[in-house]
Specification:
Layout (H helix, E strand, L loop, with lengths): L2 H16 L5 H67 L4 E3 L4 E12 L9 H7 E2 L7 E2 L1 H9 L7 E11 L1
Antiparallel strand pairs: 1-2, 2-5, 3-4
Helix pairs in contact: 1-2
Length: 169
């Protein structure tokens, strides 16, 4: 029997009791029977709740463990890329191709913003080159700054730097 059926039976019994349809000698036995059914069903459901909560906790623990493993592997891969990149640049090799891998360098530019950058901007420049995300914490809008620097506009405290990043395919 389902919990809602037991609850419905209990409710029907209470209404019949109030209406005087249940004989006095049947009240205790019926109430005890319904209470027993309800308690047993609720107890069984409580056990299921505990099991599901334990499974959720185990999944959360596994997520944490997997995230830590992922971060460790990403750090290891970054360290190895830096190691290979330094060795290739030191040997003045910008491209190595084998049967299994192709390693090349790609030139890229990045915007470098000094700490005092935002203090040196005019109000108009501040509106253009500073973004205010949620929650409000102003940060340089590097996309706009990059476009301005590339077009020849000078912004004190901001510059473009050329990088060589290793590509492994």
């Amino acid at each position: 029997m389902k919990l809602y059926e037991i609850s419905s039976m209990y409710n029907d019994f209470m209404q019949a009791l109030e209406a005087g349809e249940i004989p006095d000698e049947a009240i205790n036995d019926t109430l005890e029977g319904l209470d027993g059914l309800l308690e047993e069903k609720v107890d069984n459901i409580a056990c299921i709740v505990k099991t599901v909560q334990a499974e959720a906790a185990a999944i959360k623990a596994e997520e944490t463990a997997l995230a830590e493993r992922r971060k460790a592997k990403e750090k290891e891969a970054d360290r190895l890329c830096a190691y290979v990149s330094n060795a290739m640049l030191e040997a003045d090799k910008l491209k190595i191709e084998t049967a299994r891998n192709k390693l090349t360098f790609r030139k890229s530019t990045r915007v470098v913003v000094d700490d005092g950058f935002m203090a040196g901007l005019t109000e108009e420049q501040y509106k253009q080159f500073v973004r205010v995300p949620e929650p409000p914490e102003p940060a340089p809008n590097k996309t706009e700054i990059s476009a301005a620097l590339k077009s020849g506009i000078e912004l004190p405290g901001a510059r473009l730097e050329e990088n060589m990043s290793l590509q492994i395919k």
